[in-house]
Design a protein that fits this description.
Layout (H helix, E strand, L loop, with lengths): L1 E2 L14 H10 L4 E7 L19 H14 L5 E8 L3 H11 L6 E4 L3 E2 L8 E2 L7 H16 L5 E2 L15 H16 L3 E4 H5 L7 H10 L3 E4 L11 H13 L12
Parallel strand pairs: 1-2, 2-3, 3-4, 4-7, 8-9
Antiparallel strand pairs: 5-6
Helix pairs in contact: 4-5, 5-7
């Protein structure tokens, strides 16, 4: 059992120490644990996000986890990465910044449309009946996947579209994401945080599409506290969601 989606306190909305996450994972049969806290982003004008680590925290993040990876190397396989949005205007600068550290992978988690510092920014988890917003979300995610920088797409069904059920928008736009992920071989994530907290993702409407497209699928704990790595009840619910939508998730195949 593996999980590549684990956060730390540096994002300011997670709890627990890195050691607690690691020991909880070991105790619950997780053999590969990847840390992917919300990435620092190189924004202009000194803008500081309220839900990601700061640029100044990156050194401690990578050095702390590198030490623990060595300490626990005989008990669990640890990888160090980040979760990041694709903001075209600032993405290349951010990638260059991360090249200064032993960053093994990036997960694409598109939490905002456009980017979070623009006046027209829109949180992608907010319900909308505007087809244009879902189109922007799909366009951005597809462009991000095409960079070749991302290991997989986290919570791909994050944006809840509330337009008419028969307008074809949901199937068209989310279908584009599924089709491109399939073409590129990029897995899609069934997100356990959303499942455990009763959010509108993961949802069967999306995963029926993924099943039809034959997407590769991973289960991500999206752990923001150590106890989340012990939540086997939600893990089983994620497996059940996959099965009822004709999906066989990647449970034994390492991604790194």
């Amino acid at each position: 059992m593996f999980n590549y989606h684990t956060h730390t306190v540096r994002c300011r909305h997670a709890k627990g120490t890195e050691r607690e996450y690691i020991e909880t994972a070991i105790a619950n049969g997780i053999t590969v644990l990847g840390f992917s806290d919300h990435s620092p982003y190189v924004f202009p004008g000194g803008y500081c996000s309220n839900y990601r680590m700061e640029l100044s925290q990156a050194e401690d993040y990578f050095s702390t986890l590198s030490r623990l990876r060595d300490e626990y190397r005989d008990q669990i396989e640890i990888h160090i990465g980040v979760e990041a949005e694709y903001y075209p205007r600032f993405f290349e600068d951010t990638v260059r910044f991360l090249e200064n550290f032993p960053c093994e992978y990036m997960i694409l988690g598109q939490h905002n449309l456009n980017n979070e510092i623009q006046p027209d920014s829109f949180y992608a988890g907010s319900p909308t009946d505007d087809p244009a917003k879902l189109t922007v979300y799909a366009d951005t995610v597809i462009e991000g996947m095409r960079t070749g920088k991302f290991l997989y797409l986290a919570h791909p069904d994050l944006l809840p579209y509330d337009g008419p059920a028969d307008d074809g928008v949901y199937e068209r736009e989310y279908g584009r994401i599924c089709a491109e992920a399939k073409r590129l071989g990029i897995p899609l994530e069934v997100n356990m945080l959303g499942l455990a907290s009763g959010r509108r993702y993961p949802c069967d409407r999306f995963w029926r599409l993924a099943g039809r497209y034959g997407n590769r699928v991973v289960i991500g704990f999206d752990a923001h506290r150590p106890e989340a790595l012990a939540d086997m009840r939600t893990y089983e619910a994620a497996l059940d969601l996959c099965r009822r939508n004709g999906i066989e998730p990647l449970t034994g195949e390492k991604l790194i």
